[in-house]
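#struct-queue
[09:14] JT: dropping the first one here, sequence first, then the structure tokens:
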Amino acid sequence: MKHLPARLVAIAAAVALSATGCALQQDSGNTVEVVVGYQSKTINTVTAGTLLKAKGYLEQRLSQLTKDGGPKYHVTWQDYDTGAPITAQMVAEKIDIGSMGDYPLLINGSRTQANERAKTEFVSVTGYQPRGSLNMIVVKPDSTVQSVAELAGKKLSSSVGSASDGLLRQALSRNNIDPKSGAEVLNQQPQIGATALESGQVQALSQFVAWPGLLVFQNRAKALFDGGELNVPTFHGVVARRDYTRQHPEVLDAFLQAQLDATDFLHQQPLAAAQTVADSAGLAPEVVYLYNGPGGTSFDTPLKPQLIQAFKGDVPYLKSIGDFADLDIDKFVDDGPLRKVYNERSLNYDAAVANFANPAPITGTDPVTGAPVTDPAHASELWLDGQNTTQPAADPTSLLRAVQQARAQGKKVRAAYVPDAELGTRWFADKAIWLRDGATYLPFTTPAGAQRYTAQHPGAVAVSYDQAVTEVRA
């Protein structure tokens, strides 16, 4: 680590985990070492992490290079809870390619730029959400807190430097609460924060996917604030050490090809992909499918202008959490390798960049109404137990009818998904807050969303999920 300034050496030593499986700067004999850092439970990075690893796409691509006369390749996968240790290992030149969320990407770019051998480039997106609905603030199921404004003076949990920390700071600021002095924020790993919430040590938990959905699914929390309220795109992406990829451009090319392979598989076989990720990450398939299924996260690799613009808007966050070097986003972002991969596949990169719609919406025919499912803002989905396919619903009201029919037939509902009526966030139907407005039923992720609707529609009435299922008319 003699190439690193003393300050960065200290950071790397403090945060980095064991260096087993470290990348070699020189080839070991005839074998090129490839070290990939990923987060198995951060499921919006699965196409560059959990799913990619489980399906073996990268190893297959590299094996083909060997068959074509190239050297042998050896891939080491290192799993972390957050992006911070991946960055620390990249600073120490021990990880070659990594994936993480937008705020960790900022820190990664800032921390690695001081050393030419550690310097990284942002080369692809794994998934994004146009409004920022990937992350949430949750509270205990019996909490009386109804809004972020009520968190003033409270003890909160988040992971500093993560996307969840950025969400929390923005949410507090928008509610006139100083993130530094208006509340006590504990810097905790997601699982530690979840335990702290459950035990009452903190009054709210801000976390990135899949933690909010997981805790709500397990009845250990309920949603308080939906990141979609910020209406700022959030995303996860891939960074690569430039020194390594200049030496082995074929490895980055193979990685991006493999990421596209994983993305195609997720789009074509979403349930199978969700089960694969669930098995590998130790998560409930229903939770994985909430985010990875149609209408959830937009899994699309191009570096789109809306995302880069949002990324530039996040730069001040670096100064708010410490002494970080300025980051030139335009120099950090490099879409050249991905453009090359698109050309190799005869795909139109510019057309893909221009399309900001979810590439995998819920489609099909609503079996209750017989109508085609065409509106992503209302499309819903039902997953019945024992079935390896799901059925679409044109809107949440129709989904309630489908659930009613399934219950009448003695069928068990494994999961039902609906879009928030205001923000479009894909959410569990049985965990949503429901309003009945005439003959229409509207789901919301948070009390605040439902309150905003009733303020404009005083005739709307709150109903429970089971009440809605029982009374909805066929």
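[09:21] JT: and here's the second one, same format:
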Amino acid sequence: MRLNPFNSDNIKVRSSGGGGGVGKAGGIGCGTIVLAAIGYFAFGLDPMQTISTVESVQQTGQQSGPASTNEQEICNSSEYALEACNGLQSLNQTWARVFQEQGLGDRFQQPTLDLFRNGRVTTDGCGSATSASGPFYCPADQTIYIDTSFYDQLARMAGNRGDFARYYVLAHEYGHHIQTITGISGQIRSAQQRASRAQANQLQVRMELQADCYAGVWAGRNRNLIEPGDIEEGMQAAAAIGDDRLTGGRVSSENFTHGTSAQRSQALRLGLQGNDAACDEITVVR
């Protein structure tokens, strides 16, 4: 995808992970990332749940150092970091336009992107997490947390190393930010507290599918920047992290929290059609 170079005045980026901050792109071969990806994407562990579990079993993780907030330095520290900063700027610009079109421009707020690699990160409201927690969004500090080493694992899971698969992950987490600032997330969380476990899981599936759909909205509104093969890369990534694919059929559909491969691909495709109102219908509880 041919995104414009980032302007550090237009994005909020920091790095607070251990292990030397944001490293260069490369293979990792770390089994914990596989387990964490399954735990996060398949079982819908929210940051609070993931964090407490990971902290109790991985006391050997490196502690995060002081957060670096020099956007230029962070964004140019690696290939993945530069790509993420370009993606964040595009997402900010696209969603700001969407809010303006809907007469909600004053409600739009940019999220912060925290990039770290092979370390431990501390959030402002969702506790702390190691690299094993995978990408997540913390609503308390409106920050997207991405360990860039996850992208290497994603490439193996999705069967490709295309940049659009990585943009899809970022855009999905950005979708959770949209849910937060519009109030959708709060409504769903409230409904989950009154629901049975199976019903709560289904509500979580709707949340995740809507975030996938929002990722498609971003891509659909930037079709002039899409290159041949990008859409296929996104679909492969969405299918690779479906609950049914990751659990190999060992978990019942009642325990799904992110949706099947088919559902995730369909939600992404729905957003690509450019109708964000259709995405909003996903979380409507009737």
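[09:30] RK: nice, looked through the second one.
[09:31] RK: Residues 18-65 have pLDDT under 50 and may be disordered.
[09:31] JT: good to know. The CA atoms of residues 99 and 105 lie 5 Å apart.
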